[in-house]
Amino acid sequence: MRGRKILGGVVVIAGAVYLLNASWLAAPAGNDSPRIIAHRGVHQTFSHAGVDAETCTASRIDPLTHDFMENTITSMRAAFAAGADVVELDVHLTPDKVFAVLHDWTLDCRTDGHGVTEQTPWPTLKTLDVGYGYTADGGKTFPLRGKGVGLMPRLDEVYAAFPDRSFLVNFKSRRTEEGEALAALINIDPKVRAATFGVYGGEEPTRAAEAAVTGLKGFDKSSLKACLVAYEAYGWTGFLPGACRNTLVALPIDIAPYVWGWPNRFMKRMRDAGSDVILVGPYGGDFTTGIDTPELAAKIPPGFDGYVWTNRIETMGPLLKVTDPVHRH
């Protein structure tokens, strides 16, 4: 008798958990296609195998199919033309208080300059060739050398070039000063505020910017972990952790099926909490892997109303921006 009661209790609890997290009980948003974040704009792709913080990715690019260089205004324009809703870019605050847009911590890999990017004055950065270090054949040829002279933009130049577009700003450092400086830029110009989709990267500048700009969303590794770990612990109850509210949630596509209520119930919970979900590529320890193949795109749920992160906007944009999701799958 006692065993039956225990079994009955387990069945009741299991049923309650199921109903609380049944995706089919929450309607999808019904979007025709997802919104897209183009990582670094249209850029030269490379193998991620064995990549770490010290890897010079410009020295291991795939064979060229175009001449665009990451983080340049021309690459951003091409990304928006290919269907990007948001372009991700990387910033460094220089000694003369300019936000230079470049991915690398140092100049030696990608450019003809030397030294730490954030320690180099803007007049020097502006003269560099951002296509100098690209090679797809181990240094035998450098097909973009000479084509990137003067193409490193300032962040304010990017905003001016695309007044009606959106950007996700990546802080490459952990300097609180960077977040405060970006917040000052955002707070004095409503157009810049409207164009700033969010911030992420270094914990200190990300949180400083969020604190100083009302409604600005962002994430760093610690905040993302706090959200997802707590959600897996008790999100099944329908109660959303504070770390998941009014934020950006980067969710690897291979982990997504295992979060409570995926996809519809999970997305509704995040939407109701004022948070945006960004589907990124398979988990690899960072946020840079993207939805870069038709096979991965096929795993995006129909009606998904979040954002999709891609490194190949030039090919994935036309694929994802279809009006009939059946054709995507």
TrEMBL record:
> PROSITE patterns of this UniProt entry?
GP_PDE
Single GO BP term:
lipid metabolic process
- Residues passing through the membrane, by range: none
Which branch of life, at top level? Bacteria
Gene3D superfamilies on file:
Phosphatidylinositol (PI) phosphodiesterase
User: Which residues are in the GP-PDE domain?
Assistant: 50-320
Which GO MF terms does the UniProt record name? phosphoric diester hydrolase activity
Q: Which PANTHER family match?
A: GLYCEROPHOSPHORYL DIESTER PHOSPHODIESTERASE, GP-PDE DOMAIN-CONTAINING PROTEIN
Name of the featured protein = Glycerophosphodiester phosphodiesterase
